[in-house]
Design a protein that fits this description.
Helix content of chain C: 10-25%
Strand content of chain C: 25-35%
Mean pLDDT of chain C: 83
Shape of chain C: flat
Mean pLDDT of chain A: 92
Structural class of chain A: mainly alpha
Strand order of the largest sheet of chain C: 3-1-9-5-7
Oligomer: heterotrimer
Chains: A mainly alpha (529), B alpha+beta (389), C alpha+beta (190)
Helix content of chain A: 55-70%
Largest interface: A-B, 109 and 111 residues
Number of helices of chain A: 15
Number of helices of chain C: 2
Shape of chain A: globular
Number of strands of chain C: 9
């Protein structure tokens, strides 16, 4: 690749060859290398977390405790959640940001390349600590990824300190990543690249990064309080010492609700890049998309208690949080309408990225509508902590966030590798995923409405048939992702040569550099008209 | 459960895969048996239908454009990409829809939260992993524990394989049955005060549309008025540790007269049991009797944590086999079982089990699994520790 | 990268780090903020832990309030603990004294701490305690029994739709914490 045309030949400080061997990856400060590492790491975590989901679904395949004991089952649900949220979805978005943000705004690299290296390399250690705790005496964290006190303090096992430590490291990594994104976008935009000209992926990531630096420190504070409550005799969450376990939930969800938008806003950005490309028509309502994203982010700070309607809140607070939560569906609706309007009267083709993007719009909307149902407080008393909630957040996180990441990968793979991926295999992956993800999560709505609580290792007999279907869907979805691995490996190894702009309708700076993107791009800033 | 009229939208065909024992699962939220649960259900359906309409419109537009506006049909893409008017319209319409949703939701919620003027008050206390009910207006309180035998659900370790004494076939109310259900009178406003002894639990009876968290150190309220006598089943819905999935709620609603009769009977039984305990003090039970009762009690009350083989779960729940407590000072052992260990998951069983059961289970722990101390603990030994003598 | 941009970067990073540190602090600031929030909204039925004064309180004879008393032993609390009267009826503004009975069933000296909670939560702000055993720790010797007084009145401004208030006390065993505080010998649970 060192033979690639260097478009900036006069810049003698940069040489377009990479150091070789393992040290290249250890010491790299190149945004593309780091982006690739983030993406591979997140895929590995996706498989690890997926394997845990398979254990959960295998245990729930039929009534009775067949495979694992309830304590281990709880560890599986907990670590599955943590790994998927902090290990799969978030690093995947950071990886995409690393690769694409500098290329989209015409910057030579991320603004803080050394910190970039650090923020990636501490991540494997965080997850090594978390996952290794599963094999220790007493097992890993078993109190749910939401680690409600006092289950996670007085009543937790001895490895809780490791859980706290690993969450701290994950938080530091995310914060460093977010700072890097903000500084890059603020200071390294090419001349003429005004804020309102930035691609939506950059916009959504900028807003996400602000959410991250606002709430990850709060998460760090929360786990610190759990740590001191458990080991150092404080009583933040212990009523005996004047604390309050419900306060834990308030502080946790003050972090937790913006966190769920952290996991979906970049997805909006990806989909807003893909749909116009394959509809061959500019994105409808660009500025309203930006404002909608910003209002979703702002509203996310005042809706946290909708996770806690059953904790016993006064009527006035219940009403406030219900109204505020319902309000979020307005800007979210605007986004969906804009995507549909972008497709309207376009000239669409349906390559794999577009298929995933369309599936995203449909399935995310289903998740959004069930979210609206969950916002209605009196009905939420019936939905809360049942499989209906599980169905809801898997629709927005799996067929939402993960599908958008898949879409993004297919969309930019030619740019990353210089080869076209195998379209047939990609489509196979899409259809297998689409069908299995619905077999997996759609019946959960019914199971939840019928009254099956979440986080239980065994259930009464009426739920047996549906759980069997769900498990089969789960295994199928898990296996389908191996097709994705095959596509990516095949594409990295070779394939049809990709032109600089492999998609007819694509727009943006990233398509102006050759494919694969040279090791250094935009060492001289491009001129944006 | 019967399928309700409005579940026609679901896909009954999904039920086709066969599990003969399984009762049919309703495909929708229960309408329940109270006014509130009915109104909750109606609200749920209203919101659901609105969501369906929104989905049909949005997805309809999308699929029309997928069908018509595709390159393979040779269309030229339009270039429009902005319209403030349209943006305002599709911001305003959802907003109006939301107001339409919020009005009935607020009405129902206000009624749900109206806890005033209850006829009967019950204190519901969650603990790992059972419920405790205490009638505020009567002299009666008791624990309510899962009645499904361990042999029916614990299939992973082969411990119960081939044990023909315990029925292993899962019954109709598998995991939804308890030894002593809560009994409330029909047609009366019953107030539930929720709290917890240890971690957060959540008391849920879908048919009453009550789901309320039980927070340690704090009380929460919920209320119901059930007109139709019957048996109603629910579950704990807040992750509360290992056996979270094994602490069901069962409520029996009886007509007032029947309820009164039941209450009188229970109070009498409780009083009689107290009197009998005095007799126990002078009684000597022999070792085999103690061990038999002890094993039964152990499996019901202790095995969830300390495991049927007494080995506990490493790093989570200490084992009893060869443990210093089970092999050491008998008084200390009794004290641990009776009063629990504060700040740990070890509960105080003094209030949960009778003197006889306590004596038996401690004897069992001191002699089973090779803990051959030979100690036979008697009711009077336990009583001495309980009375602080 | 030219030094101009590097300067800008450093400046921006500094600002962002300040935000991060500020938000970490804000996480902890939520603890006292939450208490304020509870006071205002009556969230969780928290009552004030300082003694109120009953001077200049008018008695409102136009309605009566039922007060239910609940006593709960937290797990591992080796006491018998119950209200002497389960229920009283008072006029708003009327000062009333009730007793709670406690007996230690432990063979050791124990210290208890009662944690109050009022339901419905919106009534908590109107429940004024003039004297309460929950303000202090309760040490009991092995086998000792005691009557613990609570003197209170209900504020007249109690919303009209609240006819019944429930006051619960959860008794916690804080012997270990007290011992750890007073001596260097730390007792640990098994």
């Amino acid at each position: 690749m060192s033979t690639m045309t260097d478009t900036h030949a006069h810049d003698h400080d940069h040489h377009d060859h990479k150091p070789a061997g393992i040290t290249r990856w250890l010491y790299t400060t190149n945004h593309k290398d780091i982006g690739s590492m983030y993406l591979w790491f997140s895929f590995i975590m996706f498989l690890v977390g997926g394997a845990m989901a398979m254990v959960i679904r295998a245990e729930l395949y039929q009534p009775g405790l067949q495979i694992v004991d309830p304590n281990f089952f709880n560890q599986m649900t907990t670590v599955h959640g943590l790994v998927m949220v902090f290990g799969a979805v978030m690093p995947a978005f950071v990886g995409l940001a690393n690769w694409m943000v500098p290329m989209m705004i015409g910057a030579p690299d991320m603004a803080l390349p050394r910190m970039n290296n650090w923020s990636f390399w501490i991540l494997p250690f965080a997850f090594a600590i978390l996952i290794s705790s599963l094999f220790m005496e007493g097992g890993g964290p078993n109190f749910g990824w939401t680690f409600y006190a006092p289950l996670s303090t007085t009543y937790s096992n001895d490895t809780t300190a490791l859980f706290v430590f690993s969450v701290h490291i994950m938080g530091i990594s995310s914060i460093m990543g977010a700072i890097n994104v903000i500084v890059t976008i603020f200071n390294l935009r090419a001349p003429g690249m005004t804020f309102m000209k930035m691609p939506l992926f950059v916009w959504t990531w900028l807003i996400t990064a602000f959410l991250l630096i606002a709430v990850m420190p709060v998460l760090a504070g929360t786990v610190t309080m759990v740590l001191t409550d458990k080991y150092f005799g404080t009583s933040f969450f212990d009523a005996a010492g004047g604390g309050d376990p419900v306060m834990f939930q308030h502080i946790f969800w003050f972090f937790g609700h913006p966190e769920v938008y952290i996991m979906i806003l970049p997805a909006f950005g990806i989909v807003s890049a893909i749909i116009p490309t394959f509809a061959r028509k500019p994105l409808f309502g660009y500025s309203s998309m930006v404002y909608a994203t910003a209002s979703i982010a702002l509203l996310s700070f005042i809706v946290w208690a909708h996770h806690m309607f059953t904790t016993g809140m006064p009527l006035a607070s219940e009403l406030f949080f219900m109204y505020a939560t319902m309000l979020i569906s307005v800007p979210t609706g605007v986004k969906v309408f804009n995507w549909v309007a972008t497709m309207w009267k376009g000239a669409m083709t349906f390559e794999t990225p577009m298929l995933f993007a369309i599936a995203f719009v449909v399935l995310f909307t289903i998740g959004g509508l069930s979210g609206l149902m969950l916002a209605i407080t009196p009905v939420d008393f019936q939905y809360h902590d049942t499989y209906f909630v599980v169905a809801h957040f898997h629709y927005v996180l799996v067929s939402g966030a993960i599908f958008s990441i898949m879409a993004g990968c297919y969309y930019w793979l030619p740019k990353w590798t210089g080869h076209m991926y195998d379209e047939k295999l990609g489509k196979t992956h899409f259809w297998c995923s689409l069908i299995s993800v619905n077999v997996l999560f759609f019946p959960m709505h019914f199971v939840g409405l019928a009254g099956m609580p979440r986080r239980i290792p065994d259930y009464s007999l009426q739920f047996a048939d549906f759980n069997q279907i769900i498990s089969i869907g789960g295994f199928a979805f898990g296996l389908s992702q191996l097709i994705f691995l095959a596509v990516v490996i095949k594409c990295v190894k070779g394939g049809e040569k990709a032109p600089a702009k492999p998609w007819e309708g694509a727009e943006g700076l990233e398509w102006e550099v050759p494919s694969p993107a040279p090791y250094h791009t935009f060492s001289t800033p491009p001129e944006v008209k | 459960m019967k399928l309700t009229r409005s579940t026609g939208w679901a896909i009954p065909a999904l039920l086709a895969t066969g599990n003969v024992m399984a009762t049919e699962m309703p495909l929708n939220m229960t309408q329940g048996v109270t006014d509130i649960s009915q109104r909750t259900y109606d609200l749920h359906m209203t919101i659901f239908y609105i969501c369906c309409v929104i989905a049909v419109v949005v997805f309809g537009m999308m699929f029309i454009s997928i069908l018509l506006h595709r390159k393979s049909r040779g269309v030229t893409p339009a270039t429009f990409h902005e319209s403030t008017t349209i943006e305002v319209i599709w911001t305003a319409i959802p907003f109006l829809i939301l107001i339409g949703m919020a009005i009935p939701a607020t009405a129902v919620l206000t009624e749900v939260e109206d806890n005033s003027n209850a006829d009967v008050t019950v204190l519901v206390t969650g603990s790992q992993w059972k419920w405790h009910y205490k009638y505020h207006d009567y002299d009666l309180e008791y624990y309510s524990v899962l009645a499904t035998p361990r042999a029916q659900y614990e299939n992973y370790n082969g411990m119960f394989n081939g044990n023909s004494e315990i029925p292993q076939e899962k019954g109709e109310n598998y995991l939804l049955e308890v030894d002593r259900p809560l009994v409330i009178p029909a047609g009366k406003k019953v107030k539930f005060l929720m709290t917890s002894d240890d971690v957060i639990h959540s008391w849920w009876v879908p048919e009453f549309a009550i789901k309320q968290d039980a927070n340690p150190g704090f009380i929460n309220e919920a209320w119901t008025k059930v007109d139709k006598p019957g048996i109603y089943r629910g579950k704990c819905t807040e992750l509360c540790g290992k056996d979270h999935g094994f602490m069901p709620v069962v409520v029996i609603v009886k007509e007032q007269a029947e309820f009164d009769a039941w209450m009188n009977e229970q109070v009498a039984i409780a009083a009689k049991a107290k009197a009998e305990e005095q007799k126990l003090l002078s009684m000597q039970m022999d070792m085999s009797e103690l061990m038999a009762l002890g094993e039964k009690t152990y499996l019901a009350s202790c095995a969830a944590c300390h495991q049927p083989n007494g080995e506990g779960l490493q790093g989570v729940f200490p084992g009893l086999k060869g443990s210093p407590v089970a092999l050491g000072d008998m008084r200390k052992h009794i004290d641990t079982v009776v009063n629990g260990v504060s700040g740990t998951a070890m509960q105080a069983y003094g209030k949960q089990l009778g003197l006889k059961e306590l004596a038996a289970v401690i004897t069992y722990e001191r002699n089973a699994w090779g803990n051959n101390t030979g100690d036979a603990v008697q009711a009077k030994d336990v009583n001495a520790v309980m009375k602080g003598q | 990268m030219n030094s101009d941009i590097t300067q800008q970067n450093i400046k921006l990073v500094k600002k962002l780090v300040v935000i991060v540190i500020g938000m970490f602090g804000f996480g902890f600031a939520l603890v006292p903020l939450y208490d304020v929030f509870c006071d205002i909204t009556g969230l969780n039925g928290k009552t004030s832990d300082v003694a109120a004064s009953a001077e200049n309180v008018q008695i409102d004879k136009s309605r009566q309030i039922n007060i239910q008393f609940i006593a709960i032993n937290n797990q591992g609390m080796p006491w018998a603990f119950k209200p002497v009267e389960k229920q009283v009826t008072v006029y708003p503004g009327e000062v009333k004294m009730v007793n709670f009975y406690a007996k230690s069933l432990s063979s050791k000296d124990t210290v208890g701490q009662a944690v109050p909670s009022v339901s419905p939560g919106k009534g908590a702000a109107y429940f004024n305690k003039i004297e309460c055993f929950c303000f202090n720790r309760q040490p009991l010797a092995a086998g000792e029994e005691t009557l613990m007084p609570l003197t209170f009145y209900i504020d007249q401004d109690l919303p009209l739709d609240v006819g019944t208030l429930t006051l619960s006390y959860t008794m916690y065993d804080i012997t270990d914490a007290v011992n750890a505080e007073s001596a260097s010998t730390t007792q640990t649970g098994e």
